[in-house]
Amino acid sequence: MDSTPTLIAPAPESAAAGERDTVVKQADLDAISKEMLGVIADMHGETPGAVNIRANGCLAARTNSDNIRIESKKDKPGIDIIVAPHTKGEQVHIPVVLTETGENDVVYNDFYIGEGADVYIVAGCGIHNDGDCASEHDGIHTFYLEPNSHVVYVEKHYGEGEGTGERILNPTTEVHMKEGSSIEMEMDQIEGVSSTVRTTRGELADDCRLLVVEKLMTHGHQTAESDLDFVMNGDNSSVRVVSRSVAKDESSQLFQPVVTGKASCRGHVQCDAIIMDHAQVKSVPAIDARSTEAQLVHEAAIGKIAGDAIVKLETLGLTEAQAEEQILEDFLS
């Protein structure tokens, strides 16, 4: 099967299936969109597996694979991603790009992961705003994991542009896990996002495992709020939340992760942040044990870059600015 997604004439994703009118190659995407696809979804030309590209609120490209089918919703904007049972090693890419100022895009994407499947899913959104009006994308993603399935989910957010209009991203991710399933989630806000409210929820049955690694960078007057809420209903389930962030300039961040244990389970919440300049960071981790067999731990640390770390790198030939940049890169890697 040809792994190169094709562009179709822009049409709302809620339109009926089969509206593939003018077919052109993905290479015809404008340069800004192609560059952002590389940043948010590691798409640099041909992309294997199933692909769905959404641009300025419209379906721009789609390719299904043998075991993964993507269908437009009929009642609202968004797609259903259906992974056949026991699919192994396949990939799904569903990036979104906005390049028009004043765009307000909301999309509902549901993932149905078949029993025993093991897949790699890449989402993400890039906003390029050269205008004076705010551009916003709200992606509501819901996962349904059947027994013994496994998902690696990577989501990256990025903003750029010379305009004064804000670049707003408000993602919601909800995970429903049946017995024996597992998911690893890497959720990054790279830079350039004016404001974000991130909501992530999950519920786990027996023998489920959930790992979330969230990494955020804010600068200027940007604001970021992250609310995470996971409930372990099943025995032998586990949740691990790792949050790492850097706040520069006048930016502010708020983290509120909550892990609840209702069975014989294990939960661990770790929040680390570097604060710089006049930024503000508030971290409020919480654990909620509702069973004597629940083992829950939380920890949080906020601080500036250690001076001796900069001095050490300066002795290796780096300037202070280069040393600082290297430390932040390592912290968020």
Question: Would you spell out the secondary-structure blueprint of this structure?
Answer:
Elements: E1 6-12, E2 23-25, H1 31-41, E3 50-55, E4 58-63, E5 68-72, E6 78-83, E7 88-93, E8 96-98, E9 104-113, E10 118-128, E11 135-145, E12 150-160, E13 167-169, E14 172-177, E15 182-191, E16 195-204, E17 209-218, E18 223-232, E19 237-247, E20 252-261, E21 265-275, E22 280-283, E23 286-289, E24 294-303, H2 307-314, H3 320-332
Parallel strand pairs: 3-7, 3-8, 6-9, 7-10, 8-10, 9-11, 10-12, 11-13, 11-14, 12-15, 13-16, 14-16, 15-17, 16-18, 17-19, 18-20, 19-21, 20-22, 20-23, 21-24
Antiparallel strand pairs: 1-2, 1-4, 3-4, 5-6
Helix pairs in contact: 2-3
For the biggest sheet, the summary is: 13 strands, mixed
Oligomer: single chain
Give the SSE order as H and E letters: EEHEEEEEEEEEEEEEEEEEEEEEEHH
Residues in β-strands, percent = over 45%
Give the N-to-C terminal Cα separation.
35 Å
In total, the number of strands is: 24
Helix content: under 10%
Class by helix and strand content?
A: mainly beta
Can you describe this structure?
The protein is mainly beta and 333 residues long. It is 10% helix and 55% strand. The chain has three helices and 24 strands. It has helices at residues 31-41, 307-314, 320-332; strands at 6-12, 23-25, 50-55, 58-63, 68-72, 78-83, 88-93, 96-98, 104-113, 118-128, 135-145, 150-160, 167-169, 172-177, 182-191, 195-204, 209-218, 223-232, 237-247, 252-261, 265-275, 280-283, 286-289, 294-303. The strands form two sheets. Strands 1, 2, 3, 4, 7, 8, 10, 12, 15, 17, 19, 21 and 24 form a 13-stranded mixed beta sheet that branches. A hairpin with a 2-residue loop joins strand 3 and strand 4 (58-63). Helix 2 (307-314) packs across helix 3. The radius of gyration is 21 Å and the shape is globular. The two termini are 35 Å apart.
